[in-house]
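Section 4.2 – Deliverable D4.2 (structural model, holo form)

The reporting period included a commitment to supply a predicted holo structure for the target in complex with pyridoxal-5'-phosphate. Inputs used:
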Amino acid sequence: MQYSLTTGVPILKQYIADRTSADGIEFSPDAIQITGGSQQGLDIVGRVFLEPGSVVLTEEPTYLGALQAFSFYQAQFVSVKTDENGIIPSDLEYKIKEFNPAFIYLVPNFQNPSGITMSAERRHAVVALAKKYDIPIVDDNPYGELRFYGNPVPSLKVMGGQHVIQLGTFSKIISPGLRIGWIAADKEFIRMCELMKQACDLHSNTFAQYVIYEFAKDGALEAHIEVIKKAYKIRRDLMIDTLAKELKNGTTWSEPEGGLFLWVKLPNGISASELLPKAISAGFAYVPGKHFYSQNPDDTTLRLNFCNATEKNIVEGVKRLAAVVKAAK
Ligand SMILES: Cc1ncc(COP(=O)(O)O)c(C=O)c1O
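Output (structure tokens):
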């Protein structure tokens, strides 16, 4: 319970390094900085790379919390055209040349908010561009282990080596309240992160780091991930089935192979943010999609979370969504 090392508790770093190495890249504990969740990882990356006016390229839509973290350093955001396979390489190359970004920010697996996973082909193309123009990729990966269907796609970190800074977290696989995540990057970058982290909060909570290590070390984490994947898959399937049953009016939604979120697009230009007060009056809520755009917000989109509600509430919530959408037409 004394002050501890800024980079993190060594046995937990070793555990993370071994686990990351299983993806197919040799990792040493020196390449890991423990953080207060990956949200702090985003802040540290911002501290290292950004000054007022620096450009960050993002997916469209992108994770709201990253926009908040990087905005603090007065970054300018430029969104790259994105389809169901991830960002589009030709637009990425155009925007790299046009804006000379500080880095490319990606959530490549079961993205928050859209649920999209970047295809292997896109990953190869994006990594090739990052290497060609020597631009770092920030690979924010809280959901990669929550795959319910399909085959894993190779990790950006494995493909991109030192061009990729990967952010990991125990929030979605153990508990967000423990506030423990990590940055995996080359050692020189980790040294800079260590200095930033030291100025910020000296180190992350030692007790929480030991709790995670003790829980995970003998395989309990792997078993736990299987349990939550099974539960989330049932809820995902139920939410999608209920949407298909209740919303036959041109509303569309993503059908992600994992993660926690569905991305819904309303028909006839219905505004998700204008509909929200009606949803709240009807006793349910969602996040209007427009908040997840760094540019060109689409207010007909919204994010649903399927992991946290009971099966009964999922069915009831989707029915109520269908009713307010119908009334809005
Ligand atoms: C893409 C993404 N990055 C980072 C975070 C922050 O997670 P943490 O609890 O590890 O700080 C989240 C949480 O929702 C997220 O979706």
